[in-house]
Design goal:
- The chain has 740 residues and is mainly beta.
- It is 4% helix and 42% strand.
- The strands form 16 sheets. Strands 45, 48, 49, 51, 56, 57, 58 and 60 form an eight-stranded antiparallel sheet that branches.
- A hairpin with a 2-residue loop joins β33 and β34.
- α2 packs antiparallel against α3.
- The protein starts with 8 loop residues before the first helix and ends with a helix.
Length: 740
């Protein structure tokens, strides 16, 4: 019989805040995203792609590279020699017949800017080069796209590198490092007509130009770069100038863009009546994100404050796609400082991130990842091309170039990591870490019991790569003494993952004493560390606050700390577990875990830190061991406040229970059910949002700091409570945990 689902309170809370629970439905490509995250077979380069333009179903790429090779070919194999330029069929990813060699005598030529004329007939190329196919030019050239022939009459002769180009029907605007064009003074920006004759236009910026776009009415040019002054007026990194006179139309005041941030790309989207900037900063607290500004008054509409050097932008439909190495979007309410994410999407009207997460690596050079993006249509499909420094795409080898399309979506969600447990005669609890799909945040899950072809339970849930809520199904149609197996699959509505490996539990005849008591005492995080493999650590509490283990600690260590349990062993250097969910600082709490070790290097057992996948900058509410095996419980109140065991020796190779509590009665530390230290005066701790961590984190600045910040030994039954456990509760748990 198919039973109605039983939800935990935390699952329902997650439904209200994250949309975890919803009707069982999903779409293969979640609107408004219109480009799949599945990368297509595409030729590669052996260097960096800096520039890109498209016309008539052909994508033109420029950069610093000397060869191209087919997809799947390793570096140095199956290569075709080129010189900093290649043209590709947008629909197939294969090279076309247009071949141009950009060279200079010192052999360090580079192409940094490409733009196509509005009529699609002329390609303008900028960079640092002295010849194209042997035709002498100076860093700016025009190519007839019908013949792939370089103009012999268009040679404005910029005195330095050209980094950005915008073409209209009668003029070519460009910016870069140069100070003169054709022997006439120009401050980083200039314009020529289509014949290559220098125009009077001269905004006169004091430092290099890197980005340039023309407004839809043709009246203004939006310029960006390193500059602080335009025409003698302060307007750091961004300004709007008249396309005829070069006079300032809009200057931006000090602080609008951080003094150490520069504008790397500008795109105009007439449909949203806005233009968008990509910014890169250096140093702490800089602006690294995107800004949306009105084409009517040139004022800001919204700002994305993600950190991670945004390099490129493109609009498709109502979505702004960006290339960067974003690593911290916590100021946007998105992912905390963690692993870099190189391709992101957001609505043109809202900077919050959409469900689109294909990825590259940092790659070579400055290790930025993507550098440039373009949309090209061919054969009834839209293709997004991305170029840059990367050498992998979606985890597979692919250098310099990649592309995505508007369909079909062929990528299945990741396999759900599943855990099954039963601690009382009336139920089996099936939990799994929600899967990810790089272009769909809402997925459908089916739970299968005992090998049946029909699911016993179906539900949909939301997830992101950095928020993968635990989902729980409690099966109450069970019989004590019977073993049940379960498998879970995930689907985006079109593509379905395989079913997870069988996970089984035998329903006990009587309730398991220790685990039942921990839950009865109100644990809202309870990691039992019973998994046989994987990074997912099921939360046995109603809060569904699962953990993720880093570095692959040893699983299934037996015997565990309490009867019938298993444990994990951590190596003391690169392994720990963190809560998938961020938490506000608790006003009252208890933390508990069991440990066994012989280490003489100490380490943190359990605690609270502001970072999950890196060493935290804020860290307290923790229990750590000194080199001598002494246990210390610490909270930070402007200074470090601790209570500790009177002696060491808890590194004796035996299992021990440690519990630390803090609330209105101050700080208390218990070992093996007995109070070992207290300070009634310390009722508060440092206030920050953070993650519960087990096995290690920062300990710099804490008294009796051990040799290692990470714990080498076995850990079991880690729990967090939102209250101060009483001495009787702690002693009772210890007694149940050590009962034969």
């Amino acid at each position: 019989m198919r039973k109605l689902p039983v939800f935990s309170a935390a699952t329902l809370l997650a439904a209200a805040t994250l949309g975890v629970m919803s009707s069982p439905s999903a779409t293969a490509l979640q609107p408004p995203v219109g480009i799949t995250a599945d990368n297509l077979s595409t030729y590669q380069t052996n260097g960096i792609v800096w520039a890109m333009a498209q016309a008539n179903g052909v994508v033109y790429t420029g950069g610093t590279f000397s060869a191209i090779r087919p997809a799947g070919s390793a570096a140095g194999t199956n290569e075709t020699s080129v010189a900093n330029f290649a043209a590709f069929d947008a629909a197939t990813g294969a090279p076309t017949g247009c071949q141009l060699n950009f060279t200079v005598g010192s052999n360090n030529a580079t192409v940094r800017a490409l733009a196509v004329s509005p009529d699609g007939q002329t390609l303008y190329a900028g960079g640092f080069f002295g010849a194209v196919n042997g035709v002498g030019v100076s860093s700016l050239a025009a190519i007839n796209l019908a013949t792939c022939a370089v103009s012999t009459t268009f040679h404005p002769a910029a005195s330095g590198t050209v980094r950005t180009i915008a073409a209209t029907s009668d003029a070519v605007y460009f910016g870069g490092d140069f100070t003169s064009v054709g022997g006439q003074s120009r401050g980083k920006f200039a314009a020529v007509n289509t014949a290559g004759t220098l125009l009077p236009w001269s905004p006169n910026a004091d430092l290099p130009g890197r980005a340039l776009a023309i407004t839809p009415d043709g009246q203004n040019a939006i310029i960006g770069g390193d500059f602080n002054y335009v025409g003698g007026t302060y307007s750091h990194s961004l300004a709007v100038v008249d396309t005829t006179t070069g006079a300032l139309t809009k200057a931006y005041p000090p602080g609008f863009l951080d003094a150490t941030s520069v504008t790397k790309s500008i795109i105009v989207d007439p449909a949203s009546n806005a233009f968008y900037t990509a910014n890169e900063g250096t140093g702490g607290g800089v602006f690294d994100g995107r800004v949306a500004l009105s084409l009517t008054d040139f004022n800001q509409i919204w700002r994305d404050t993600c950190l991670g050097a945004t390099q490129s932008l493109v609009v498709h439909g109502t979505v702004l796609y960006s290339g960067s190495h974003a690593h911290d979007c916590s100021s946007m309410g998105e992912f905390p400082n963690s692993t870099r994410k190189h391709l992101l999407a957001e609505s043109v009207t809202d900077p919050h991130l959409l469900s689109w997460y294909p990825d590259t690596n940092d790659g070579i050079g400055e290790k930025i990842g993507p550098r440039v993006m373009a949309i090209s249509s061919s054969g009834g499909h839209d293709y997004m091309w991305v170029g840059g420094e990367f050498t992998t795409v979606n985890g597979g080898a692919q250098q310099g170039l990649t592309r995505f399309a508007d369909g079909p979506d062929t990528g299945a969600p990741t396999l759900p990591q599943t855990a099954v447990s039963s601690i009382d005669p009336g139920a089996v609890k099936v939990t799994w870490q929600s899967s990810t799909d790089n272009d769909d945040g809402t997925l459908i899950y089916n739970v299968y019991r005992n090998g049946a072809a029909t699911p016993v339970y179906t539900v949909s849930g939301d997830s992101k790569p950095w928020i993968r809520p635990q989902i729980t199904f409690t099966d109450t149609n069970v019989t004590p003494g019977v073993k049940y197996t379960y498998r879970v699959s995930a689907s985006d509505g079109v593509n379905t993952s395989a079913q997870s490996p069988n996970a089984a539990a035998t329903v006990p005849a009587t309730a398991e004493p220790y685990a039942t008591q921990v839950l009865a005492d109100g644990a809202n995080l309870y990691w039992r560390y019973d998994a046989a493999a994987g990074s997912y650590n099921a939360d046995a509490s109603p809060a569904d606050d699962s953990g993720i283990s880093v570095g692959g600690p040893v699983h299934a260590v037996s015997p565990g700390a309490v009867p019938g349990s298993k444990a994990y062993t951590f190596n003391g250097s690169t392994q720990w577990t963190y809560s998938d969910r961020s938490h506000p600082t608790p006003s009252a709490y208890s933390v508990e875990t069991w440990f066994k070790t012989t280490t003489t290097s100490g380490g943190k057992l359990i605690g609270f830190g502001n970072l999950a996948t890196e060493t935290s900058g804020n860290y307290d509410k923790h229990v750590y061991m000194t080199n001598s095996g002494q246990l210390i419980f610490g909270a930070y109140t402007g200074s470090t406040r601790i209570v500790s065991t009177p002696t060491g020796g808890y590194n004796d190779g035996n299992w021990h229970q440690v519990v630390a509590t803090q609330g209105a009665n101050g700080m208390r530390l218990y070992v093996d059910g007995v109070l070992k230290g207290s300070d009634a005066a310390v009722t508060t701790s440092q206030n920050y949002d953070g993650f519960w961590r087990v096995g290690g984190d920062n300990l710099n600045g804490w008294p009796s700091q051990p040799t290692s910040q990470f714990f080498a030994g076995s850990i079991d039954e880690a729990a967090v409570f939102p209250t101060v456990l009483s001495p009787a509760q702690i002693a009772n748990q210890y007694a149940l945990g050590t009962a034969g």
